[in-house]
Write a structure and sequence with these properties.
By secondary structure, the protein is mostly helical. The chain is 56% helix and 2% strand.
Length: 171
């Protein structure tokens, strides 16, 4: 098996298309809604088996699987191959997983939008953003989100913005 290299960051147009595919996937939306319902009821903290449900765990897994398959369709390694290839290089493995997690988190924020305020504080992806009213069908709105995301979360980004994309006014 060939060594896996860090995947290239996606240009805005490609990343935007990936986000649209993710956000518009009915199975992803259903999985996230199921997970959120469990979290609201106090059964969504997956790192604590005493407070998580099987339903929350399965819904989160489905959401992650859909996201990873979109990454694979754009040149990322298959998840199993990535785990096997990175072996004991846990730092590199965590970097890849962090990039994928950022992709999922941005998609979650776009799906949830203002409904995020109903979620437990620990679950809110965009809690530090003053504006959560982003529209997946408006590229300028998504670009505004990515600029804010880059500022708040500067590491492990799955996308790259050109100088002109980064410099545009967030309004």
């Amino acid at each position: 098996m060939a060594d896996i290299e860090l995947p290239r960051p996606f240009a805005f147009d490609e990343f935007y298309a990936m986000l649209k595919k993710y956000v518009n996937d009915p199975k992803a939306r259903e999985a996230l809604a199921n997970y959120d319902a469990e979290a609201i009821e106090g059964r969504g903290q997956l790192n604590d088996s005493s407070t998580s449900s099987e339903s929350a765990y399965n819904a989160d897994g489905i959401f992650q699987q859909i996201g990873w398959s979109i990454l694979v369709s754009h040149g990322w390694p298959i998840y199993y191959d990535m785990i096997q290839s990175t072996g004991q290089n846990h730092e590199f493995q965590m970097e890849l997983l962090s990039i994928a997690a950022n992709f999922r988190s941005i998609a979650k924020l776009l799906i949830r939008g203002c409904k995020e305020d109903d979620l437990p504080r620990w679950l809110r992806e965009g809690d530090t953003f003053p504006d959560k009213d982003f529209d997946i069908y408006d590229p300028a709105s998504v670009l505004r989100l990515l600029r804010m995301w880059s500022e708040k979360h500067p590491r492990h980004q799955p996308y790259t913005l050109t100088a002109s994309e980064s410099a545009q006014s967030p309004d």
